[in-house]
Specification:
The strands form 7 sheets. Strands 20-21-26-27-28-29-30-31 form an 8-stranded parallel barrel, surrounded by 6 helices. 48% of the residues are buried. Helix 5 packs parallel to helix 6. Helix content is 31%, strand content 21%. About 2% of the residues have low confidence. It is an alpha/beta fold. It is built from 21 helices and 31 strands. The protein is globular.
């Protein structure tokens, strides 16, 4: 009897958590949000400001499958309201709704049926794009629809529109839809009008039929050093083959793929040639190339295979259109000479906080290469997880790769990369000339490893994996010999997996004021005495980090031929010779540059003012919940000056490159990763590649708009495959 009563109470309690009828999300506890599968919101206008109800529905209710907003009085579903809420299966919109904001339901790919209320007068750009499971869409009114508002609805079978007047829409509103499988139901008297209306007419034609267009002026990011047009045109149907030496077999394969996908070339029939050549006389830069388009063909010459590949990426952009199902029929004749301003143009992504599947990493690499970004920095470990298999320490992934929660998001987060998977990924990236650089943090940001092997920290303390952002007080213990054994084995295995010239050692947020982890540790005190460091002076703790770094750096150099990288901190008084430091903190870039100059070091610029791409791109933009994040706008990223005003000597002798960072505490889905990355990564690519004299903000705005449309179509089509 007691058991039955207890079971009944537990069942009723679970129902009280899973199904909720409320006024606002503030009425629910964190536990109720985490457990909710059905929420009905009634009788109020939901707030849309900071940490809004929509943000909580999107990010804090991972089990929510049904959302009923019919009782709300909201006139607008705000921009990104339920962006990539993959868990939703059923959504009822308010009858008062007048506008569905930009990307409001983007990639809500579990919803099979949706009714747009008669009150809606505007469906913004990409508002319903990527709702891949949607099979039936009913539009009760006559809303105006923006660019790609209904793009990529690959499973759509029926559209019902009650308006006798075709709602106004853009030519690409329905991009990527399979018109032959869609039944369009409209008032009988209006069918002819729909056949003739902009956008709607695409639903009456065979979507598999390829259209062609001629390109009159090319849109290239990053803008080349030199581009001049000649008289005449190249008809792409005249290209019959790709010619290249054996050293360029990879580039030949890419060239054929590009021509097949984007142009009207006729392999084996046309008399023209796409010629790929190696030519070391072009420039001292190993990435320099030239590209010549004539009425008879195309010639790409590069100093190295990498340079030839960048020439192909330029050609790919020249052939790209911003419309799905369109092939380029002809190009203007032109001549390009090009080379990069900096050596390394990097994006850093963070699978430690929230795991990123390998399939998405591959797509990420493809987009990076398109804009000549040549390094992917993988932040593989942190307080929240360990993501790379280390065979000597299996607990790192058995235990350290799983947790529930990231700040207020109660997500179940797990996953890691096996060494074999990562080897294959590194080889894949190499085909796109993207170098994969691993990062293993030290001495801080190592709680996941410490959780698995407590002897790594002072006092062998047992600590849980962190489920929030911020800085942990737990550091690797520089006085514990097991730490050096552990790191030696980790880097030995990493060096076998990653052929990159570089390994990133972290090094951030472990300085002064000293964290108590080292201040009251007997082993650290003994090490201080051995090194002649005053035991009572906490400000000298940085010397323990220097000792730890020096031992690891020596191993990396002598055993594996690696160049160490690390995040610059003012507390770390000396930059080890031959290392590469990263300027990342707001307001400290000039200090980091001066330190690099004084220590004869190279430096990467990723200052938060320009390069933190996980920050919102505009006020009120995602991630919305904002624990001090400033805005990093597209223009701010574009305005990055790699020389930072330090002149040509600094640029020649110390500047190594630029990097954009994407810390993932607030990036819970792959769609969000791409949203935060682009178009700002395009701006960063141009800052790192193009000469200052060629860069103009208004011109970049126009080019990036074109490229963002094309990227959006690619993402939708990639996701549907």
């Amino acid at each position: 009897m007691k058991t039955h009563l207890l079971s009944s109470l537990l069942f009723l309690f679970s129902l009280s958590l899973s199904a909720q009828t409320i006024g606002t999300m503030q009425e629910l506890s964190a536990q109720q949000k985490a457990a909710a599968t059905s929420i009905t919101l009634r009788g109020v206008q939901l707030p849309t400001g900071w940490n809004s109800d929509f943000r909580q529905l999107r990010d804090c209710c991972p089990r929510l499958t049904e959302l009923n907003l019919s009782g709300c009085r909201n006139r607008e579903l705000p921009t990104n309201a339920l962006f990539s809420a993959h868990h939703l299966r059923r959504l009822v919109l308010p009858d008062s709704l007048e506008r569905i904001g930009k990307a409001a339901l983007y990639a809500c790919d579990g919803i099979e049926e949706l009714v747009i209320p008669a009150s809606v007068v505007r469906i913004d750009d990409s508002a319903l794009a990527g709702m891949r499971a949607l099979r039936r869409l009913t539009i009760l009114g006559c809303p105006e629809m923006g660019e790609m508002a209904l793009a990529g609805l690959t499973d759509l079978r029926e559209i019902v529109v009650q308006s006798p007047i075709p709602p106004r829409c853009a030519a690409n509103t329905f991009a990527g839809l399979q018109s032959q499988q869609i039944q369009l139901t409209v008032p009988r008297s209006a069918r002819r009008a729909y056949r003739q209306a902009e956008g709607w007419r695409t639903l009456f034609i065979n979507a598999s039929k390829k259209h062609t267009q001629d390109v009159d002026s090319v849109q290239i990011i990053p803008i080349p050093q030199s581009l001049t047009y000649d008289d005449g045109r190249l008809e792409m149907a005249q290209i019959g083959k790709v010619v290249a030496c054996d050293a360029l077999n990879n580039e030949r394969d890419h060239a054929q793929t590009i021509l097949n996908r984007l142009s009207t070339w006729r392999p084996g029939k046309g008399k023209g040639i796409l010629q790929l050549e190696l030519d070391a006389t072009i420039s001292a830069s190993p990435e320099a190339y030239t590209l010549q388009v004539t009425p008879n063909g195309i010639v790409i010459r590069g100093v190295t295979p990498t340079a030839v590949f960048w020439g192909l990426m330029t050609l790919e952009q020249m052939l790209t259109t911003s419309c799905a199902n369109t092939l380029t029929a002809s190009l203007p004749t032109l001549h390009i000479e090009d080379a990069p301003r900096t050596q390394l143009r990097e994006l850093m992504i963070d699978p430690a906080r929230i795991f990123i599947p390998l399939a998405e990493l591959r797509l990420f690499v493809v987009e990076m290469a398109r804009y000549k970004l040549n390094a992917l920095h993988l932040h593989l470990v942190d307080d929240q997880a360990w993501r790379i298999e280390i065979k000597a320490y299996p607990r790192l992934t058995e235990i350290g790769s799983k947790r529930t929660g990231m700040d207020d998001m109660p997500l179940d987060i797990s996953g890691y990369y096996t060494q074999e998977e990562m080897r294959e990924f590194v080889q894949f990236a190499a085909r796109y000339h993207v170098e994969v650089i691993p990062e293993i943090e030290m001495p801080g940001h190592e709680v996941a490893a410490i959780h698995c092997y407590p002897q790594l920290t002072c006092g062998a303390r047992e600590v849980p994996i962190r489920t929030t952002c911020g800085v942990s007080n737990e550091l690797l213990c520089p006085g514990e010999e097991f730490v050096y054994e552990f790191l030696g084995n980790v880097f030995r295995e990493l060096s076998e997996v990653f052929p990159s010239r570089y390994i990133h050692l972290g090094g951030d947020e472990a300085g002064n004021p000293a964290l108590d982890c080292w201040t009251h540790c007997e082993k650290c005190e003994a090490l201080k005495a051995k090194l002649g460091i005053p035991l009572s002076d906490r400000s000298e703790n940085w010397r323990l980090q220097e000792y730890l770094f020096n031992r690891v750096i020596d191993t990396l150099r002598t055993c594996y031929g690696k160049t160490p990288m690390f995040w610059y901190e003012t507390d770390f008084k000396r930059i080890p010779e031959g290392c590469i430091t990263f300027a990342w903190r707001h307001g400290l870039t000039a200090a980091a540059i001066r330190a690099a100059q004084e220590n004869g070091a190279h430096i990467m610029l990723c200052p938060g003012e320009h390069c933190y791409l996980d920050y919102p791109a505009a006020p009120g933009d995602m991630p919305e919940v904002n624990w001090g994040m400033p805005v990093t706008s597209l223009e701010q990223t574009y305005r990055l000056d790699p020389s930072w005003g330090f002149g040509e000597s600094f640029e020649q002798h110390h500047l190594f490159g630029v990097a954009g960072t994407l810390w993932s505490e607030c990036i819970p889905t792959p769609e969000r990763l791409f949203y935060m990355t682009y178009p700002r990564a395009m701006a960063l690519a141009e800052a790192g590649w193009s000469p200052k004299s060629r860069r103009q903000w208004p011109d970049f705005q126009q080019r990036s708009t074109f490229h963002l449309r094309a990227l959006f179509i690619r993402r939708l089509l990639d996701a549907s495959r």
